[in-house]
From TrEMBL:
Its main location: membrane. It is found in: Cell membrane. One of its GO terms (molecular function) is ATPase-coupled lipid transmembrane transporter activity. InterPro entries: AAA+_ATPase (IPR003593), ABC1_TM_dom (IPR011527), ABC1_TM_sf (IPR036640), ABC_transporter-like_ATP-bd (IPR003439), ABC_transporter-like_CS (IPR017871), P-loop_NTPase (IPR027417), Type_1_exporter (IPR039421). It is an enzyme of class 3 (hydrolase). Coiled coil: none annotated. SMART domains: AAA (SM00382). Residues 68-338 form the ABC transmembrane type-1 domain. Residues 372-605 form the ABC transporter domain. It comes from Flavobacterium frigoris (strain PS1). This is Lipid A export ATP-binding/permease protein MsbA. Its EC number is 3.6.3.25. GO terms for cellular component: plasma membrane.
Length: 609
């Protein structure tokens, strides 16, 4: 059994009743498929006037006598009806029998489909939930290596493919094989010679079909990867449309997209050709078998006279009845190959080990009492070392500023404090407790983060600000907006705090977006505030508004300010100057100016900007 199929089994557990009923109804469907064909036999007998006349009601003597008893009882009823009411009523009786068996066959087919529908849709929902849960829980580092589009393709396309293709397996192992088995058993009973003849041709057909299906799974995997790449291009295009247009890069992106679409076209055409070949090929092979059967069976009826004409016609309908499930099996086996390729990509994400999680007996910490200590920390993103033996202490109530050139490791400190990444060596502790020993949710609950890129969602101002405190009242939100110096523009919006701000907050200016990010952090009201270059993307006027908002927010809080613009951090209790992952200077603004070192050089450079 395929390993991906085994991995999928736990997802089917909540729906095991549906599986059981599907199997039961499929068995009944397969049984009535054969019975419905057999009911044509008495119709032909009546039509050709060959009905056996049985006037005495047969007696059932046990399971060994079942076939004979069934046949004799049917002919006894037909004989009685013909004698009492004439041949027309007898014909009506056998025709109604045909209708009834076909009704049951189709009813059981519907019920089987009904149960498999609940199974498929339920598993689809559960897989999507697991996938989304995993996507949200995986560390930030995972996404620095992966394309967003590929993850989206797995979440949407591949999970759908699993739903559409995988459950063909139930048809593959129950419904169609049983239909074939029941038909074959009946065919053996009608004519042993003919059936042995059919069985010689079936394996040959199966071998030819399997040859065509070869390498379908590998092609499906390629196609699904290409879909991921395609979604990535669209995602990046929408995100960077301004840059694409301003650099006249439309032809480059169109070319990249067109190349990907063409590769996908070739792959899907190749897969589609093989899939489309499944039905006509199996039908042609089936009809070839039937044609040879007609010739051989015709000989048995006309020349050897060892087979009755009516029995031969019923035999042919049963042989045709094998064709449909045989076609379905070949089609389903193609589908399953696509499903296996899709499942492989889905489980690839679901099985990624998340290294950044809460320990089993992690401490719940809801207060910040004395200090944050960073001790002998080394850290590197892949190969490049960013922090080297870095140590720093931040006491409660202090505002510490981290400054330095780009790439000096300032933002890495914010990533490590919030445990977006884990240190390679050394420790970071809060009130003497290593942050790895603190429950991840309670650790992040102690911190408010305002980043350079104000990340907002396509929702109302209220929904965006109350992200960290969903129970917040309108008054609390307005108070947070006032502290963040944002209420002055929010109150003028058409619907106030209930105004939708568009995708990524694009209906607002950069300064307005940043002030909303600050209001979000203010409302959360954490004891530790981390400001990662919160003003560096703003113009001078916006910066003044945001600076006031930041100063309001940092009152009575412990703040770690990562700054590019040095004018914003002159009031800090301590300024830490970093270079290549190390502290080169530390002190107040005045002390560092007097020192006439690197900080003074940075201030001088910026004052000329």
């Amino acid at each position: 059994m395929d390993k991906n199929l085994i991995k999928l089994l736990p997802y089917t557990k909540p729906y095991k009743t549906h599986i059981v009923w599907n199997v039961i109804y499929n068995i009944l469907y397969a049984l009535f498929s054969t019975i419905s064909m057999l009911t044509i036999f008495p119709v032909l007998e009546v039509l050709f006037g060959k009905t056996k006349v049985i006037l005495k009601e047969p007696v059932y003597t046990g399971i060994g006598n079942l076939k004979q008893f069934g046949s004799d009882f049917l002919y006894y009823k037909i004989s009685e009806l013909t004698k009492d009411n004439g041949i027309q009523v007898a014909l009506l009786f056998v025709v109604l029998m045909v209708i009834t068996t076909f009704l049951f066959k189709n009813l059981f087919n519907y019920l089987a489909s009904h149960h498999i529908m609940h199974l498929k849709n339920g598993v689809l929902r559960d897989l999507r939930k697991s996938m989304y849960k995993k996507i949200v829980e995986l560390p930030i580092s995972y996404y620095s290596e992966k394309r967003k589009g590929d993850i989206m393709a797995r979440m949407l396309g591949d999970v759908n493919e699993v739903q559409n293709s995988f459950f063909s397996i139930l048809e593959l192992v129950v419904k169609e094989p049983l239909t074939i088995i029941f038909a074959l058993v009946t065919m053996f009973i009608i004519s042993l010679k003919l059936t042995l003849f059919v069985l010689i041709f079936m394996p040959i057909s199966g071998w030819i079909i399997s040859k065509v299906a070869k390498n379908l799974r590998a092609k499906s995997l390629q196609a699904q990867r290409e879909s991921g790449f395609l979604i990535s291009i669209v995602d990046e295009t929408l995100g960077g449309l301004k840059v694409i247009k301003s650099y006249n890069a439309e032809p480059t992106f169109k070319g990249r997209f067109n190349d990907s679409v063409t590769r996908l076209l070739n792959l899907t055409n190749s897969i589609g050709s093989k899939n489309n070949l499944a039905t006509p090929l199996s039908e042609f092979l089936g009809v070839t078998t039937i044609a040879i059967l007609l010739f051989y069976g015709g000989n048995l009826v006309l020349v050897e006279k060892t087979l009755d004409g009516s029995a031969f016609i019923v035999y042919l309908t049963l042989a045709f009845n094998i064709l449909t499930p045989a076609k379905a099996i070949s089609k389903a086996s193609y589908s399953v190959k696509n499903g296996l390729a899709a499942a492989e990509r889905v489980f690839e994400v679901l099985e990624v080990q998340n290294e950044i999680i809460s320990k089993e007996n992690a401490v719940d910490k809801n207060t910040f009492d004395s200090d944050i200590t960073i001790k002998n920390v080394n850290f590197k993103y892949e190969e490049e070392t960013v922090l080297k033996d870095f140590s720093l202490q931040v006491k409660k109530g202090q505002t510490i500023a981290l400054v330095g050139q780009s790439g000096s490791g300032k933002s890495t400190i914010a990533n490590l404090l919030t445990r977006f990444y884990d240190v390679n060596d050394g420790t970071i502790s809060i009130d003497g407790t290593d942050i790895k020993d603190i429950n991840l949710q309670s650790l992040r609950g102690l911190m408010g983060l305002v980043t350079q890129d104000s990340i907002l969602f396509n929702d109302t101002i209220k929904a965006n600000i109350s992200l960290g405190k969903e129970t917040a009242t309108d008054d609390e939100i307005i108070e947070a907006l006032k502290i963040a110096n944002a209420y002055e523009f929010v109150k003028d919006l058409p619907k106030g705090i209930h105004t939708n701000i568009g995708d990524s907050g694009n209906k607002l200016s950069g300064g307005q977006k940043q002030r909303l990010s600050i209001a979000r952090a203010v409302l959360k009201n954490p004891p530790i505030m981390i400001l990662d270059e919160a003003t560096s993307a703003l113009d001078t006027e916006s910066e003044k508004f945001v600076q006031v908002a930041l100063e309001n927010m940092m009152q009575n809080r412990t703040s770690i300010v990562i700054a590019h613009r040095l004018s914003t951090i002159q009031k800090a209790d301590s300024i830490v100057v970093m270079q290549k992952g190390k502290i080169v200077e530390q002190g107040t603004h005045d002390e560092l100016i007097t020192l006439n070192g690197m900080y003074n050089k940075l201030v001088t450079m910026q004052s000329f900007e």
